[in-house]
Specification:
Number of strands: 9
Strand order of the largest sheet: 3-2-1-4-6-7-9
Helix content: 40-55%
CATH superfamily: NAD(P)-binding Rossmann-like Domain
Distance between the termini: 53 Å
CATH topology: Rossmann fold
Shape: globular
Bound molecules: NADP nicotinamide-adenine-dinucleotide phosphate
Length: 259
């Protein structure tokens, strides 16, 4: 059977980087995209150091905010590997700031990346998956997707978009044999916090932090088990439930943390 091929957006650091490594370890070929080509070259080098039997990698500089860029990444991947089986729509940014006072340029960048970026990568990948006879789309959302999130609402709402989209997409694509898994990621130690747009670089105490390889392992597992939604930890599950049952209380706690 031909090795599977996975397109990973935001593969130059954090969760995307570790996911690319984890897929390559199990023999899946990788199309790795992000804007920082030098970081993708480091990933390429790391994959070439893996024990025999690892997947191959094609690195493609790409910007998820551009539909053409995502189409070009898919096209180059098809020319190189001949098929596309998996998309990890991972590229994303954080933001803190009041809804009415935050810089519009930051809000725009956040929305163009976290919303347009997910749409562009999915819309580019699906025709290639159909050609391959099916596939699996992994959307990277967040445990804050349903958070009442004063001063973090722009980010939180962008992840609500991702999770809502994933649920409908799953039904739209079931006839094409394309699975959709939405991963609700909790706080993870990556470059995410230092690159976050807007104010408030404080990360907030008391919230447990995971390593990105743990998230990567859950993503790989989901491609085998075909879970619809992945929540990694009890803490993350409690936060999501808290927002369903006592949103006012969680919102007050969030206001203290983000304000
Ligand atoms: N870390 C957390 O606590 C956490 C929690 C919940 C959800 N998440 C989600 O997990 C995903 C990955 O984040 P991370 O934690 O791994 O952060 P990260 O280390 O900062 O990685 C973000 C990745 O996105 C890429 N990216 C950003 N803007 C892009 C653009 N316009 N075009 C192409 N690529 C772009 C970056 O690459 P370049 O800069 O090279 O383009 C980088 O590879 C995000 O969707 C984030 O919202 C993270």
């Amino acid at each position: 059977m031909a090795a599977k091929v996975a397109l990973i957006t935001g593969a130059s650091s954090g969760i995307g980087y570790e996911t690319a490594l984890a897929f390559a370890r199990e023999g899946t070929h990788i199309i790795a995209t992000a804007r920082r080509l030098e970081r993708l070259s480091e990933l390429e080098h790391a994959i070439h150091q893996l024990p025999a039997g690892h997947g191959d990698i094609l690195i493609v500089a790409g910007d998820v905010t551009s539909a053409e860029s995502m189409q070009a990444a898919v096209q180059q991947g098809l020319e190189h590997f001949g098929r596309l089986d998996i998309l990890v729509a991972n590229a994303g940014l954080g933001h803190r700031g009041a809804i009415t006072e935050a810089e519009w340029s930051d809000i725009k960048t956040l929305l163009r990346t976290n919303i347009d970026g997910v749409l562009h990568s999915i819309r580019a990948a699906v025709p290639a998956m159909r050609q391959s006879g099916g596939g699996h789309i992994i959307t990277i959302s967040s445990v804050v997707y349903n958070l009442v999130a004063p001063y973090a609402a722009i980010y939180s709402a962008s992840k609500a978009f991702v999770t809502s989209l994933a649920q409908s997409l799953r039904l739209e694509l079931e006839g094409d044999h394309i699975q959709v898994t939405d991963v609700l990621v909790g706080r993870t130690h990556t470059e995410f916090n230092e690159k976050r747009l807007g104010g408030g670089k404080r990360t907030g105490g008391g919230v447990p932090t995971m390593t990105p390889d743990r998230v990567a392992a859950a993503i790989i597992k989901a491609t085998h088990t075909r879970q619809k939604t992945v929540i990694l930890r009890l803490f993350d599950r409690l936060l999501i439930w808290g927002n369903i049952f006592v949103p006012g209380l969680i919102g007050r706690l969030a206001k203290k943390q983000y304000g």
